[in-house]
Amino acid sequence: MTSAGMQPTTTRRTTHPTVAIVGATGAVGQEFLRVLDQRGFPLGGLKLLASARSAGKSVEFQGKPIVIDELTEQSFGGVDIALFSAGGSISKQYAQAATDAGAIVVDNSSAFRMTDGVPLVVPEVNPEAITAANIGLAEGQVPGVIANPNCSTIIMLLAVTPIHRAVGVKRLVVSTYQAASGAGAAAMAELEQQTREVLAGDEPTCDIFPQQYAFNLFSHNSPLKENGYNEEELKMVHETHKIWGQAEDTKTAITATCIRVPVMRAHAESINLTLERPLTEEQAGKLLADAPGVSLIDDRAGNRFPTPLDASHVDDVFVGRIRHDLSQPGGQGLDLFVCGDQVRKGAALNAVQIAELLLD
Ligand SMILES: NC(=O)c1ccc[n+]([C@@H]2O[C@H](COP(=O)([O-])OP(=O)(O)OC[C@H]3O[C@@H](n4cnc5c(N)ncnc54)[C@H](OP(=O)(O)O)[C@@H]3O)[C@@H](O)[C@H]2O)c1
Q1: Which residues pair with 317 in a beta bridge?
Q2: For the domain 152-179+218-260+263-342, what is the CATH code?
Q3: Integer CA distances (angstroms), 189 to 79, 193, 320, in order
Q4: Which of 171, 262, 277, 347 is deepest in the core (most CB within 10 A)?
Q5: Which residue among the candidates 258, 267, 324, 339 is catalytic per the annotation?
Q6: Residue pair 37/59 in contact by the 8 Å Cβ criterion
């Protein structure tokens, strides 16, 4: 047991759990399979679930075909950990069937992230948020849900949390450059198709996004709120406060602008910080170089900094452009540029790391 305070009941298998992947055919679902394999996760069994459209098809895992079953409320018998990645409405509809059947749910959607009592976890940042009580592992309870944060939030917090812990972050301004893969497998296919169409001089097909994506960029496609922010931006604000455990009067001031760019995979983020106490560039670089899950690419002489291609299919989040903000003298303003694979660390890897915290 690697997580503080957890005492699993003897009825749940925690050495070689049977794992279900809900949404196994999707961008995140497919990444789950790669991550489970690459990390040597000690699977007792594996159940792949998706919609009726995919039922009966098979997917290769460790050299063997596994048939995909249709997700139903009866899908979770014998499942110890259910990794959900089929969208918020599916999580809301089926998470309880999974927990009633005895599985702990690790949910990639936004369905339960801000629900009181549901831990919202980045293992490098707040593993202590998982306790026996809050995921229903105390005697006589049904198991509960652990939420995986929004992908842009996870990537940002891997880079910013070490600085926050060292000197405090008073204000955070983030602008994102988000890849197609963040919107799922169909969005990736549409970007590829549009790129071919535009290069051939044809009209681009716009099925997933209402406007041309190839050779363009636009404000994030999540719904807009009355205050002019879209949901993605507000997730970055509210989820950060929850993960950092900030009470109302201690909250870091955060604002975000989220943009979808025609990159196939891996998000980039430009982050501007106002610090409580001064930090030199060297100190910031050292903190980040030592931080778990972070790698530096910060070569000023070579003008070489993180790119989405550096981060694609890689566990670590890359950080560079570490510099003092000229507009905030006194060493209390800091700029960073961050790239991270949001299908991997922003979703599948983070959820599997959470599942690893549940192992004996
Ligand atoms: N993509 C990312 O980088 C990312 C990052 C963080 C979080 N997430 C979250 O993860 C979830 C999945 O995202 P994704 O990008 O993997 O989407 P996706 O590529 O569109 O995949 C969606 C998956 O959900 C399944 N599904 C859809 N309707 C279903 C139904 N009625 N019953 C059972 N399964 C159903 C699909 O199965 P079929 O193939 O059978 O339709 C597919 O396996 C979303 O909640 C998303 O917000 C995604």
Answers
A1: 294
A2: 3.30.360.10
A3: 32, 6, 30
A4: 347
A5: 267
A6: no
Which residue from 148, 158, 175, 160 is spatially nearest to 31, judged by alpha carbons? Answer: 148
**CATH architecture of the region 18-148:** 3-Layer(aba) Sandwich (3.40)
pLDDT at 71 over 70: yes
Domain-wise residue ranges, the chain: 18-148, 152-179+218-260+263-342
Whether pLDDT at 256 is above 80: yes
Q: Ligand 1 in contact with 340 (CB < 6 A)?
A: no
Q: Taking the CA atoms of the chain, what radius of gyration do you get in angstroms? A: 21
Q: Which of 151, 164, 220, 258 is catalytic?
A: 151
Alpha-carbon distance 189 to 350, whole Å?
24
Is the per-residue pLDDT at 4 higher than 60? Answer: no
Nearest atom in ligand 1 to 28's CA: 16
The response to whether residue 349 sits with its C-beta less than 6 Å from ligand 1 reads no
* 22: its two tokens: 């809900």
